[in-house]
Write a structure and sequence with these properties.
heterodimer, A: 271 residues, mainly alpha, 11 helices, 80% helix, B: 279 residues, Arp2/3 complex 21 kDa subunit ARPC3, two-stranded antiparallel ribbon, two-stranded antiparallel sheet, 64% helix, 4% strand, disordered C terminus
Chain lengths: 271, 279
C-alpha cells in the first residue's frame, strides 16, 4: 500500500471527477456503500463493480494503482467467506461486496485530497479528533519517507532476505524502533509549532467548491441509481432477472475501457 | 487479526450501528477527557502515533506477508483515552483506502481501542511487578494476551451477527435470487446457475432453483465454529510475530529513552502556558 501514490493522484490529477465537489463525491460513495449493504444478489453487486471500473477507465483514473488497492480486501473477504459462509454463491457475494465498497472508497481518495475528505469528517467529530486526523495525514508522509530511508539503511547494513525471516523481522523491528523515536521528536516539534502559533483547537480546512456541477449531479445520480436498483431487486419478486443489470454493467465496463483507451491514443497522437 | 476484515453488508445492521454508536460515545468521552487535561500536547501525539501505526500496517515482514499492527505499543505510548481517538483515526484512514468496510469502522475501532487499552494496562502493570530490564518480555507477553483476547472479541462479534447476517430481514445475503430468466418470454427460459437446467415454468423454475441454491448454501447462517477454527489456527502465528516485534521495540525504547514508557499516559510534563489549551 503506497499512500504517496494515492495522494499524488488526488492532488495532481485533472480528471472530471477531480473537479467535482468533495461533498458530492462523499455522498456518492455513501450511496454506493448503502447499495453494498442492501444488495443481496451477486449479479447486481457485480454490475455496480463493473460500472465503477468502467467509469474509472473512462475518466482515465490510474486504474493500475487503484485496482490492487480495491482488490486487496478481496483476499481477506475470501478468507472470511471461506471460513464463515455456506456455499459458493454466498462466498462470491461477500467478495464482491468487499471489492465494490473498496472501489467506491478508492475512487474517492484517488480524486479527492485527504484534507478535503477530513473536512467533512471534522464537521461531525469533536475538535480534537478532526485536528488529530489532519496531523495524522501530515505525519503519515513524513514517517513513510523516514521509514523507507531507515529500512534501506538497515537492509544495506544487515540484509533483508526471504530466506532469513528472523533476520528480516529483526531488521524491520530496528527500523521501526528508530522510526518511533523520530516520531516522538516530530510530535514535540508539532507541539512547539502549535504553541508558537497560539493553537487553541480547531484546524479548519476550507471546503473545495465544484468546478463541474454536471459531474456532481452525475456522481450522485449514479449512486442513487445503484441504490434504487439494489432496493428494487431486493423488495420486488424479480428473481431471475438480475442478469440484465449484470450484463449492462459488463457493457458499461467495456464501453468505459474503449472510451478511455481511445482518448489516451488520441492524446498520444496529438503529442 | 487485530481488526475485522469483514466487508460492508455482511453483518446485520443493528450490530454495526451499535458499533458506531458505542464508538461515537467513547470518542466523545475521550475527547472531553483529553480537552480538559492537555489538548495541545495530545493532538500532535495522537496524530504522530496514529501515523506510525498506519505506516507499520503498510509495511510487511518480507517472506511472511504479515503486516505489523503496533496497536499494543500505541496503547502503551498514548494511554487508554487517547488510544480511543487514535483507534478511530487509524480505522477510518484504513477504510478510506478500502482496507475494511465503512460500516464496520465502529466495530473495528472498538476492537483496536480495546487492544490499546488492554496493552497499556498489562504493560504498565507488568512493569510495576517485573524489573524494567525485562520490559521487552513483559510487552511481548502482554501483546500475546491482548491479541488472544481481541481475537476472541472478533469471533464474538461474528457470532453475534451469525444467525441474522444471512437472513433477508436484517442482513443482505440471499442466494435464492441467482437465476437467469428471460424477460421477453415471461420467464419461460429459466436456467438455475447451480441447478444447471432449463425449466418450462417460471414459477417452478424459481422454486426449484431456489431449492438447488438452497442445497448448495444449506443453512443461511455464518458458520461461526469454522470461522473460529480458522482464526484460532492462523492467529497464533500473527500474535507471536507481533509480540516479537512489540517486545523488541519496547525493549529498545526502554533502553534508549525510558521516559517514553515509564511515565505512562501521564508522563507529559505540564509546561507554562498549557492551561490555555483547555476548553
Amino acid at each position: 500500500m503506497d499512500i504517496t501514490v494515492v495522494d499524488r493522484s488526488a492532488t495532481l490529477g485533472d480528471s472530471l471527477l477531480h473537479r467535482a465537489a468533495p461533498a458530492s463525491k462523499l455522498a456518492a460513495s455513501g450511496l454506493i456503500v448503502a447499495t453494498v449493504v442492501v444488495t443481496s444478489d451477486p449479479l447486481i453487486m457485480a454490475s455496480v463493480a463493473f460500472a465503477l471500473v468502467g467509469a474509472s477507465a473512462m475518466l482515465r483514473l490510474p486504474l493500475r494503482s487503484m485496482l490492487p488497492l480495491a482488490l486487496y480486501p478481496a483476499i481477506f473477504a475470501f478468507i472470511f467467506a471461506f471460513a464463515a459462509a455456506n456455499g459458493p454463491v454466498t462466498t462470491a457475494l461477500i467478495v464482491l461486496k468487499a471489492v465494490t465498497a473498496a472501489l467506491a472508497m478508492v475512487m474517492l481518495v484517488f480524486t479527492t485530497p485527504y484534507p478535503q475528505v477530513f473536512a467533512a469528517v471534522q464537521r461531525v467529530t469533536p475538535v480534537i479528533v478532526g485536528d488529530a486526523l489532519l496531523l495524522t495525514y501530515r505525519s503519515l508522509f513524513i514517517l513513510a519517507e523516514k521509514f523507507s530511508d531507515l529500512s534501506r539503511a538497515v537492509r544495506l547494513r544487515a540484509g533483508v532476505s526471504a530466506r532469513q525471516p528472523l533476520r528480516s523481522a529483526r531488521a524491520t523491528t530496528r527500523a521501526l524502533g528508530g522510526l518511533l523515536l523520530y516520531a516522538f521528536d516530530l510530535s514535540q516539534r508539532d507541539y512547539d509549532i502549535l504553541r508558537l502559533r497560539g493553537y487553541d483547537g480547531g484546524l479548519r480546512v476550507s471546503p473545495q467548491r465544484s468546478s463541474a456541477p454536471g459531474v456532481d449531479a452525475a456522481a450522485i445520480g449514479f449512486g442513487l441509481a445503484a441504490l434504487m436498483l439494489a432496493i428494487v431487486f431486493r423488495a420486488l419478486p424479480l428473481p431471475g432477472y438480475s442478469w440484465i443489470p449484470g450484463l449492462a454493467g459488463a457493457l458499461a465496463l467495456g464501453a468505459g475501457l474503449i472510451i478511455g483507451r481511445n482518448h489516451t491514443t488520441k492524446q498520444r497522437g496529438a503529442r | 487479526m487485530s481488526h475485522l476484515h469483514i466487508p460492508d453488508g455482511v453483518l446485520p445492521v443493528w450490530l454495526w450501528l451499535a458499533g458506531w454508536a458505542l464508538t461515537a460515545a467513547l470518542v466523545w468521552l475521550a475527547s472531553r477527557k483529553l480537552t480538559t487535561t492537555d489538548a495541545r500536547r495530545s493532538v500532535p501525539l495522537i496524530g504522530v502515533v496514529s501515523a506510525l501505526v498506519l505506516v507499520a500496517m503498510s509495511s510487511e515482514i518480507v517472506p511472511l506477508a504479515y503486516h505489523i499492527n503496533l496497536t499494543v505499543l500505541a496503547g502503551v505510548l498514548l494511554g487508554p483515552w487517547a488510544g480511543v481517538i487514535s483507534a478511530f483515526i487509524v480505522v477510518l484512514a484504513l477504510a478510506l483506502l478500502g482496507h475494511g468496510g465503512i460500516t464496520v469502522v465502529g466495530l473495528n475501532a472498538l476492537v483496536i481501542a480495546t487492544e490499546m487499552a488492554l496493552g497499556w494496562a498489562l504493560v504498565r502493570g507488568g512493569a510495576r511487578v517485573i524489573r524494567r530490564a525485562k520490559l521487552g518480555r513483559v510487552a511481548a507477553a502482554a501483546t500475546v494476551l491482548t491479541l488472544a483476547l481481541t481475537t476472541t472479541m472478533v469471533v464474538g462479534i461474528v457470532a453475534l451477527g451469525g444467525t441474522a447476517a444471512m437472513s433477508r430481514e436484517t442482513g443482505a445475503l440471499d442466494p435464492e435470487t441467482l437465476q437467469f430468466n428471460n424477460p421477453f418470454t415471461g420467464g419461460v427460459l429459466s436456467i438455475g446457475l447451480l441447478a444447471g437446467g432449463e425449466h418450462a415454468d417460471a414459477a417452478d423454475a424459481a422454486g426449484e432453483t431456489a431449492g438447488s441454491a438452497g442445497a448448495a448454501d444449506a443453512e443461511p447462517t455464518l458458520a461461526v465454529g469454522r470461522f473460529a477454527a480458522v482464526v484460532y489456527t492462523l492467529g497464533p502465528l500473527g500474535w507471536l510475530l507481533e509480540a516479537l516485534v512489540t517486545g523488541a521495540i519496547v525493549g529498545y525504547i526502554g533502553r534508549v529513552r525510558p521516559s517514553l514508557l515509564f511515565g505512562g499516559a501521564d508522563w507529559r510534563p505540564r509546561l507554562p502556558g498549557d492551561e490555555h489549551g483547555r476548553r
